[in-house]
Amino acid sequence: MSNEKPHQVYGETNSKPTITENVLQEKAETQSLIIDFEENDPGNPLNWPRSKKWTITLVVSLSVFLMPLSSSIVAPELSTIKDELNMGSSLEAVLVMSTFILTYCLGPLILGPLSEMFGRAAVLHSGNTFYLIFNLVCGFAQNKGELLASRLLAGFGGAGGLVVGAGIISDCFPKEERGWVIAIYNLGPVFGPSLGAVIGGFITQYTTWRWAFWATSIFDGVLIVLGLLVMQETYPPVILARRKAKMLKTAAPNTLLKTPYEKPDQTLGQLYRNSLLRPLQLLRVQPIVQLLAIFYAYLYGLMYLVLSTFTTLWAEKYHQLVGPASLNYLALGIGYFLGSQVCGFLADPIYRALKKKHGGNGKPEFRVVLMFPASILAPVGLLWYGWAAQAVTHWIVPDLGIALFAGAAMVLFQCTSAYLYEAFTLYAASATGAVYILRGLTGFGFPLFGPRMYQSLGYGWGTTMLALVAVIMGFPVPVILWRYERFTMSDNYGSYQTEIYGKGALMGILPGVTTDPRKLEEHARESLGVRAFNYVAGGAGEKATMDSNRLAFRQWKLIPRMMRNTPEQDVSVELFGQKYDNPLIMAPVGVQGIFHEDKETGLAEVCEEVGVPYTMSTASTSSIEDVATANKHGKRWYQLYWPRDNDVTLSLLKRAKESGFSVLVVTLDTWSLAWRPADLDNAYVPFIKGVGNQVGFSDPVFRAKFEKETGSKIEEDIIGASRAWIGDIFAGSPHSWEDLAFLRKNWDGPIVLKGIQHVDDARLALEHGCDGIVVSNHGGRQVDGAIGSLDVLPEIVDAVGDKMTVLFDSGIRTGSDVIKALCLGAKAVLVGRPVIYGLSIQGRDGARQVLQGLLADLWQNMGLSGIRRVQDCDRSQIRKVQYGGDVKAMM
Question: Which of 7, 523, 596, 778 is catalytic?
């Protein structure tokens, strides 16, 4: 979970604010306050006791189990209901099951926005109560009109659990713990339909059909009572909104309180518009959504067609009593269960293997591999079932056939859902909603024609017709999905531009993070609290050095060349004897946990996927080992804030080396923090409260020394430990050039000095055995009024560029900025702020989009400038001009 976020107001489980009214009144005059969870906040569902989380999960899982059970429990009773209520045809009897399925599937489109406004618990309680009322009415219905109308409304109420179930799990459990929880949660939808039919069969044989509704109502009543006793709201936006409402009662009139999830202009009407119109829009314009929705809906319709006709088969063809006949429904349940387990066991390893094979880049089509065999087995299972039933073979034979179909269908369901979530990310809910729309219609409609079809064609030819359609639709689907990404993606970085246009034209999907570097910072400001934003966007003094960095890029101009045959560029570079896919390196940015809960581990994972080396800061909110695990097979560098204590330094170097960090980047210009007004005005340094100290707090040597000196563990004295750690890495005096011998002796990989601005310092770095330098002024964060790094780059390259690797950092915002630095002699560039802005806006997805955008911009500008290879970048393609006027307005 995320660490402390700047300028946040934290609450306890009773939602009482931890900031006084006086402080609120004082702060309200100058800035807004962000209300968010604190690290280890007991009010955060992720931090609840496991017993509490599992109890809530059990209640919602039982609710999700009850509704599919309720949909099918009437299947064995349809003929009895038809006779007792004087229904004119079997079609009307089937409507008793179909109407429930229709509203159960379409209900989420209505209830989903309500859960966003009022919370998950409210929707679950209201939905279960609504279901209880009308399900009871079903049990007392005296005519078909009463039964069908009540059944229709009961299905709508039953959708409450479907709407909130997965969300409650994601609220309460971190990603690494959700596997087993989801597996248990999914048992309900898997076994519910088949168990419902079994129970319904014995109810029909031994008592009245009305007990099907009374029994499920009793079950639901117990769930409602349990829910009221144990359920608490789990949806973070609603929890924090309630905290905000309580705090407003004691806040000064002009205080502006916000939560990170707030969208002030979003109304319930707008939520409904997104919920209803976006799925319809995707169905209208997106071929892939159309294809998947039709295929998924067809399989779902077949499932309920079988459920509605199964009893008739065993009663009329096999002459079994209703109770024993209903046991055959277990074949469906077993098939669903085995299919879900096979998919769960194989899907992730297949995805990981393909991702590794493709250089660490995961793609949605990697989720469809299991669809190839499943799309063949599903019609095979149907044919097996149909002709075995037609020939009245031993009962186990059609059961095996229908189990094969059910297992294959479950694999197809799960692969389809996984593909949608991978392909549509931000709009995955809308894409899934589009599938639900058609699913509800086929679940409603297919059982209506099933009985008449089998009466006319028999089980053999009737099922053959269904299987033929499944073949025609089924096998092409995974083939199309596997090849579809080729339309919008190719093997070069510039294809990201094509992908954006393709998704917009074909899917109606716009980028989740702006591609405009000028807007990116403003969007990050809107996403972050005041202190978090100032920490990343601020600079030293009046930000004169930051202005110099951007002015330097403005004054250096590219000189494009034409007709140079550059349709395919080579942006790879060689650094320290290793080939890198591109000249971008993620700069070391500290305390990433204050920007987004994905923090360093999420960004390290993204860097591996995109193919950009990740440089980890010593001032991280994640440990060295956790970052290495997240970065997997990616290239990673370790940035050292050099402690005064050699024992601690040795421990950090040892941990970094053992964790696969290949390059040591030593930052020279932060032995003391600069005068930063944006942070000073808020009296904000995250390290004081332990935020950004995870590297030290997880270090065995530092921990042992702290415990020996103080007699306390770090967890018992966070403030004291923070002071000790800060005092070690920001010691107040710099190391000497002679001290580099210590690092050279204890690090056997490349050593790069970051923060070089003077040509003599570059020469000294070379003399003392360093392998590279980063020409950098720390992005303007350390010395105010310093020269722009790009302006000193040519002189430094001329002095040492042929003897050591010269890298560049400070002010990179666009692909053309990268080219300018390369033309002036840098071998590669480090980029920081833009990626962190993306991280703050949309987590790892936002960071990924910014990195992909930078690489695409680089690729396009190289080609348009007539540059085919990075190695071809030189000073003949760049010229410096004088840029007059107001610097601020210019930038």
Answer: 778
Contact 228, 160 (CB under 8 A): no
**Listed residue (307, 308, 377, 309) closest to 342, CA to CA:** 377
**SS3 at position 829:** strand
Residues 166-210 pLDDT 10s: 788 878 887 657 656 776 777 777 788 888 888 988 898 889 999
**How large a percentage of the chain has pLDDT more than 90?**
44
Residue pair 388/395 in contact (Cβ under 8 Å)? The answer is: no
Q: CATH homologous superfamily of domain 49-233?
A: MFS general substrate transporter like domains (1.20.1250.20)
Establish whether 778 is a catalytic residue.
yes
Q: Which CATH number fits domain 281-510: 1.20.120.530, 3.40.640.10, 3.40.47.10, 1.20.1250.20?
A: 1.20.1250.20
pLDDT at 138 over 70: yes
Domain span(s) for CATH 1.20.1250.20 in the chain: 49-233, 281-510
Rounded to 5°, the CA angle 626-357-494 comes to 90
CB 178 within 8 A of CB 52: no
- Per-residue pLDDT tens digits for 448-472: 888 888 888 999 999 999 999 888 8
Question: What is the CATH code of the structural domain delimited by 528-560+572-646+658-674+741-890?
Answer: 3.20.20.70
**What share of the chain has pLDDT > 70, as a percent?**
87
Angle ∠(883,886,889) on CA atoms, nearest 5: 105
The mean pLDDT value of the chain amounts to 84
pTM for the full model?
Answer: 0.61
